[in-house]
From TrEMBL, chain A:
Record GO biological process: glutaminyl-tRNAGln biosynthesis via transamidation; mitochondrial translation
Lineage: Eukaryota, Fungi, Dikarya, Ascomycota, Pezizomycotina
Keyword Mitochondrion among record annotations: yes
Oligomeric form and interacting partners: Subunit of the heterotrimeric GatCAB amidotransferase (AdT) complex, composed of A, B and C subunits.
Molecular function GO labels: ATP binding; glutaminyl-tRNA synthase (glutamine-hydrolyzing) activity
Residue span, Asn/Gln amidotransferase domain: 451-614
Region feature (Disordered): 68-87
Lineage: superkingdom: Eukaryota
EC numbers for this chain: 6.3.5.-
Localization (cell): Mitochondrion
Annotated PANTHER family: GLUTAMYL-TRNA GLN AMIDOTRANSFERASE SUBUNIT B MITOCHONDRIAL AND PROKARYOTIC PET112-RELATED (PTHR11659), GLUTAMYL-TRNA(GLN) AMIDOTRANSFERASE SUBUNIT B, MITOCHONDRIAL (PTHR11659:SF0)
Matches recorded under SUPFAM superfamilies: GatB/YqeY motif, Glutamine synthetase/guanido kinase
Protein name (database record): Glutamyl-tRNA(Gln) amidotransferase subunit B, mitochondrial
Gene Ontology cellular component terms for the protein in this record: glutamyl-tRNA(Gln) amidotransferase complex; mitochondrion
TrEMBL record, chain B:
GO molecular function: ATP binding; glutaminyl-tRNA synthase (glutamine-hydrolyzing) activity
Family: Belongs to the amidase family. GatA subfamily.
GO cellular component, one term: mitochondrion
Positions of the catalytic residues: K26, S105, S129
Region (Disordered) location: 88-107
The protein's name in its UniProt record: Glutamyl-tRNA(Gln) amidotransferase subunit A, mitochondrial
Quaternary organization: Subunit of the heterotrimeric GatCAB amidotransferase (AdT) complex, composed of A, B and C subunits.
HAMAP family named among the record's database cross-references: GatA (MF_00120)
Length: 614, 457
């Protein structure tokens, strides 16, 4: 028994290490199939936007991001189902989600034991967790912060008092014989979230307006259960997880524009929880699980006519314990098909609890109405009510990190002006938690932009600057392409990035001020990555010391050189001058000349004047 | 059998009044050096890995823990006969060959004190489990205000009613139901302004406690005690606690409901008894054989009652209704006492000073503790229904429901309807947290000595 548990635990630990530090094997596996999904960056100004970054390696840093993108693609790859998809379909799917997410806390909800996912089985158990006789629960107030952040992120009302109830059922992974949860008076109620086109909602989804609103009925605190490790003919139980704090988020029923929609809602909730640092563990650890309620009804004219009247939902079935976004999507799809087939055959849908069989791709009946568990809810007689004062709630509201929607709006708006795609890339790099941590990529980016704008304001007294709205985008490109690519090439993790935001801002400043060329800038950045310098003014110092600045060449001198280069090539010159060449060819010829002239001169010569001359 | 333990070496306060005293501990209070069985087959060999706060505190004060005492299984019973280790037999004079009930569920603790085996014993009182045995065995039994003593390490029967029967001062941060230091301070400060005069206490006699089932000997002892107190200069006032008749049914809904929940943890998976049938047959309903074998009949009965009371079809009529009754019983007490219930007052509530007794309000309530003196065990066993024993709690459960302190003090009356001269337990109840006046009244009762029976009215 024991060796098996240990082996399992060891395997889990190893997987965790792979997942979080990204070993070499991991990278190899990810590099090839996902390389294709990297976007091509469009560049507005050739000399400002370094092109041709080595994206293949750069992507390795983003493996999490790719996974998410991958899932996203999968969602869009689903076969459309004309019976349920779109506003013209014959059937409407209604779904409701009960999402369980592990809160990000160090200790358990009612005991002093640590929360852990990787420790050897049965090593983090307080007397209460094993339900020893005489043990008593003590509420861990540290749980309130992440739970309240979740409540605020989902726009909930937080009443001043919530209470705990006992929900009784017998199962070996539930030592007390009941779960402490909040049935009668939950932590938070009546919230909502909005889904936008960038969440994957297609335009058919959002019939009215730009977004779809999902109502949250309540958010409650509750205890997690233990884990069962199958070892036929025995079941082994690991109690480490018993009593870990969960939030259960219950949505109100919502109509689905298509069967993929509930998974989008789930992902949106997941990313919000992550962004506000309420829940950091993904589905892969069982950190996020859902019970999904599904019903279908025929679309009829009365739906549109009965203003204000609640729709008459079909009989719902509950699918228990669905543990990934993909499974949610497939389970809803499959269950909707099953219910529609029943109804079209003139039969009725039985209200029942079902399970999701991922291998066969079908839901299976677990128990019917007659087999429903009577949970015998009872207010817990030991625990006092949880009081949330206005001061605490205000504090949470003031300090809550930006939500993905807010961050995206910030990055795509002034003064950053990032393209949505680039902004999302930065956010994915941070796993949607940029604003929560100062070490994050988004934080670094924003800091660099702020510094650049400061410098520009000072420089602008000497020079006229007219391109300010593009600075954010330029910095974005340097962070994503050059810095990201350079770090990846050297195998340096983001948290060990040696280039300070001040150095990067100065580098970009020199580029946009045309004091150095893009090529020089790239070389300087590579030097900073491979041989870090503590000098915050490294760029300024080095450019001055090594004479890398673009030399302002007198116009007649350029003309002399140009004539030297161009006159011998009279054929080419003729073709260019005569305007016979098509524009594309003309451009190439121009470049050819510029290259020739540059070869004669110093590499720091700017090409702009030359282009203009030619 | 008496287990004696050497005096703890790190006992700090040698000046403590408990220092060197021999204390027995009821077997539902966790000890690390002795098993904690709750008198149940389920926990026959169970040894707790941690110690109850009350036991720790006793040891720290220099007490010697003598051993663990027998009881009704998990505290459920009124005669201490429902034990996996056999029934407790009450103390009786040598000329009385008939074994008598020790009362329950803390029967073992009461007998240990009555027989002089120890200076004091810890019991637990959920609905009268300390007061009733004290009454039957002729010793003092004290149930403090709810939350006054830590329940950490006390195996729960009914959490909202459980109390440990001994006096303590300190808050236990590991017990969520232990009164907080702020609450204790508030109670202390407000109650210190109390206006009672210990030479002339205002004593209430609740008419609803004069139930028809009261034996003549008990009724006589009650009257005699009241008369004697009157003659000593105290003021006797008849009072009404109108919801008393409903408290017993309320208690027998609420306590089993909480018990059914508390005892769900005994499934044989992690510790305790596990039935062989639970392992062998895959068709078995898991846990059922273990729980059937491990619990005695009375415990099973209360689990079933409690589970029913919480079921969705019965909850509104039983559990919720019983909670309403409980609130009414509490307000009965609040209306009777001179002192307001300071626990319910807001922290900064500037309530008027304690009301005077002119409106029929009293400092303490005096009532009998049990319907009769200790009955014969043979009579108890001959009862037609196990439910007959529940009636015994009728006089003790109101104080439990209200959470107020109560002490049972034995009185002796001669020349009346109690020819055997058996002790009768008189119960003193006071407002929540008002243990001060409770002890004054208890001392007065103790000083009464043997009284001459007065004429019945």
């Amino acid at each position: 028994m024991a060796p098996l548990l240990t082996t399992l635990a060891r395997r889990c630990v190893t997987q965790a290490r792979h997942r979080y530090t990204g070993t070499a094997t991991h990278r190899l596996r990810l590099s090839s199939p996902l390389g294709l999904s990297l976007r091509r960056y469009t560049t507005a100004r050739e000399d400002l936007y370094p092109a041709g970054a080595s994206t293949a390696e750069f992507q390795l840093e983003f493996k999490k991001a790719y996974k998410t993108r991958h899932k996203e693609r999968h969602q869009h790859e689903r076969e459309p189902n004309t019976a349920t998809d779109g506003p013209q379909s014959e059937w409407i799917i209604t779904a409701g989600l009960e999402i369980h997410a592990q809160l990000n806390t160090g200790r358990k909800l009612f005991s002093n034991a640590r929360t852990t996912h990787t420790a050897p089985p049965n090593t983090h158990i307080a007397p209460l967790d094993a339900s020893l006789p005489g043990s008593l629960p003590i509420f861990n107030p540290a749980v309130l912060l992440p739970a309240l952040r979740a409540a605020v992120a989902l726009n909930c009302t937080v009443p001043p008092e919530s209470r705990f109830d006992r929900k009784h059922y017998f199962y070996w992974d539930q030592p007390a014989g009941y779960q402490l949860t909040q049935f009668h008076a939950p932590l938070a109620t009546d919230g909502h979230l909005l889904l936008f086109p960038h969440d994957g909602v297609t335009h058919t989804h959002s019939g009215n307006g730009n977004s779809v609103r999902i109502d949250i009925q309540q958010i409650q605190l509750e205890q997690d259960t233990g884990k069962t490790l199958a070892s036929p003919p025995n079941s082994l139980v690991d109690l480490n997880r018993v009593g870990s704090p969960l939030v259960e988020i219950i949505t109100r029923p919502f109509d689905c524009p298509d069967a993929a929609f509930p998974a989008l809602v789930m992902r949106k909730i997941q990313s919000a929880l992550k962004a506000v640092d309420a829940c950091t563990i993904g589905m892969e650890w069982g950190g996020l699980r859902a019970d999904v309620n599904v019903s279908v009804r025929r679309r009829s004219t009365t739906d549109e006519d009965d203003w204000g009247a609640p729709p008459r939902y079909g009989q719902r079935c509950e699918i228990k314990n669905v543990a990934s976004l993909k499974a949610v999507q497939e389970a809803v799809e499959s269950e909707a098909r099953r219910q529609i087939a029943l109804l079209e055959a003139g039969e009725t849908v039985q209200g029942e609890t079902r399970g999701w069989d991922a291998d066969k791709g079908v839901t299976r009946r677990l128990r019917g109405k007659e087999g429903e568990v009577d949970y015998r809810f009872m207010p817990d007689p030991d625990l006092p009510p949880v009081h949330v004062g206005k001061a605490l709630l205000d504090k949470v509201k003031q300090t809550i990190p930006l939500l993905p929607d807010q961050l995206l709006a910030q990055l795509t708006g002034a003064p950053h002006h990032l393209k949505e795609k680039d902004a999302k890339t930065l956010m994915l790099w941070d796993e949607y938690r940029a604003s929560a941590r100062e070490a994050g990529v988004v934080y670094y980016y924003k800091d660099a932009v702020r510094r650049l704008l400061d410098m520009v304001v000072r420089e602008a007294e000497r020079e006229r600057m007219g391109l300010q709205e593009e600075f954010g985008a330029v910095v974005g490109n340097w962070v994503v392409h050059e810095l990201g690519g350079g770090l990846a090439k050297e195998g340096i993790a983001w948290r060990e990035n040696p280039v300070s935001s001040k150095q990067l801002a100065e580098l970009v400043l020199f580029v946009v001020m045309r004091e150095i060329t893009g090529a020089t800038a790239k070389t300087l950045l590579t030097r900073l990555i491979t041989a870090p310098s503590p000098d915050p003014n490294f760029i300024r110092t080095t450019v001055a010391a090594e004479g890398l600045a673009v030399v302002a060449v007198p116009e007649d001198q350029i003309l002399d050189i140009a004539e030297d280069v161009m006159l011998p090539e009279s054929d080419v010159l003729e073709e260019l001058r005569g305007g016979r060449a098509i524009p594309k060819r003309q451009k190439r010829l121009k470049s050819w000349f510029v290259g020739r002239i540059m070869a004669r001169y110093r590499p720091s010569t700017t090409t702009t004047t030359l282009n203009a001359y030619i | 059998m008496v287990l004696v333990q050497k005096k703890s070496e790190h006992s700090s306060s040698s000046s403590s009044s408990i220092d060197g005293r021999i204390i027995a501990v009821k077997d539902n209070i966790c000890t690390t050096d002795l098993p904690t069985t709750c008198a149940s087959e389920m926990l026959r060999d169970y040894v707790s890995p941690y110690e109850a706060t009350v036991v720790q505190n006793l040891k720290r004060a220099g007490a010697i823990i003598m051993g663990k005492t027998n009881m009704d299984e998990f505290g459920m019973g009124s005669h201490s006969i429902y034990s996996a280790f056999g029934a407790v037999v009450g103390p009786s004079p040598p000329e009385d060959p008939q074994p008598r009930s020790a009362g329950g569920s803390s029967g073992g603790s009461a007998v240990a004190v009555a027989m002089g085996m120890c200076d004091a014993a810890l019991g637990t009182d959920t609905g009268g489990s300390v007061r009733l045995p004290a009454s039957y065995c002729g010793v003092v039994g004290f149930k403090p205000s709810y939350g006054m003593l830590s329940r950490l390490g006390v195996v729960a029967y009914a959490n909202s009613l459980d109390t440990v029967g001994i006096l303590g001062k300190d808050h236990d941060p590991r017990d969520p139901t232990s009164l907080s230091p702020e609450t204790r301070k508030r109670l202390r400060e407000n109650l210190s302004k109390s206006s009672y005069n210990k030479a002339s206490l205002r004593i209430g006699i609740p008419t609803e406690y004069n139930v028809t089932e009261l034996t003549p000997a008990v009724r006589e002892a009650w009257e005699t005690t009241a008369q004697t107190l009157l003659s000593l200069g105290h003021r006797i006032t008849p009072i009404s606690l109108p919801h008393t008749p409903h408290s017993l049914s309320s208690y027998y809904v609420l306590a089993p409901a909480e018990a059914s929940s508390n005892l769900a943890k005994y499934d044989g998976v992690r510790y305790g008894h596990r039935s062989a049938a639970d392992r062998s047959s895959p068709d078995n309903i898991l846990f059922a054989p273990t729980r059937h074998d491990g619990f005695g009949a009375e415990v099973r009965r209360r689990i079933l009652m409690g589970a029913y009371a919480l079921s969705s079809e019965a909850k509104e009529n039983y559990f919720i209704q019983a909670q309403r009754v409980r609130a009414l019983v509490q307000s009965d007490f609040d209306a009777a006492f001179v002192q307001p219930n300071w626990l319910k007052m807001r922290h900064k509530d500037k309530r008027a000073p304690p009301r005077d007794g002119g409106q029929g309000r009293v400092d303490v309530i005096l009532a009998p503790c049990a319907l009769s003196a200790a009955p014969l065990l043979s009579d108890v066993r001959a009862q037609r229904s196990p439910l007959d024993a529940y009636v015994n709690d009728v006089l003790t459960v109101p104080a439990s429901l209200a959470g107020v302190p109560a002490v049972s003090v034995p009185v002796w009356v001669e020349g009346g309807r109690n020819p055997e001269g058996r002790p009768i337990g008189m119960q003193v109840m006071t407002q929540f947290g008002d243990e001060g006046v409770l002890w004054e009244a208890a001392k007065i009762l103790e000083g009464l000595g043997t009284m001459k029976a007065c004429e019945g009215r």
